[in-house]
Amino acid sequence: MSTKSPLVSRLSNRLGEEYERFSEKMAILSLRFKASEWPCPRQQILLVGCESSGTTAISRLMLRDGTGRFLYEGGNHWVWDACNSIYQRQTTLRDYPRLQIYDRIKIPRFASIVDQYVEAYPKVKIVYVLRDPRDVVVSACKTFKVTTENGLSDIPWVTESWLGIEDQEPVARLARRWAIFLEQSQKASGVCYVRYEDFCQDKVGCILDAAKQLDIACDRERLLQLCDSQASPPSTRDYKPAGPGGWKSGMLRDSDIETIQEICGDGMRQWGYL
Prior knowledge:
single chain; alpha/beta; globular; 5 strands; five-stranded parallel sheet; 47% helix; Rossmann fold
């Protein structure tokens, strides 16, 4: 059996990416010449959850198999602005008809507008990725290479004001974000919740179980090939994720742990983290 050389494989991937970008631009252009239909009848899968919860790894295995057009937040800053203004009721999803061209979407912060998304896209299937909020804070610190408390204050998720969080302390603001996202997700029915901890214990089995619940196809062989490879590029995350329980390593102070558990306590108890 012949196999592609690394050069041919890279060229093939590059051509595929270029075609995907061209196709996306043409689809966006076509929206200008037809009236948008609301509610939108398109069947979509939307994956959300608090950042640093494993959304990239899980979406790669579950959604990025070449089926349909895929949208993710990296480099698409317009989706951040859209979510912020929609959450604050300054705009609605109808102001962003571009979303209609996508079949599979991974925008973690869309967790805050799940109820509005379901209203605009009633056929959407929602996947919510959950992770212990103590591990979420530790992972955020590692991603942004935080070594001091002042550094934690510089994380974009801490400084953003669109959620209306009034806490001043950085750890409290991150914890509040986790709690708000989870609370908002529960305003919609039929959400498929995936715990990051369950995913780490059995990646292939977890994805297959979620796919069955969503009634979407998943190739077991593809999952086995990709499940242990790093999902994020080194430029985004240059370390191997520690997995569940990383918060016990000592990066968090006792007061940080108490703050997180006080703010997120109800959700943590609901999902077995306390």
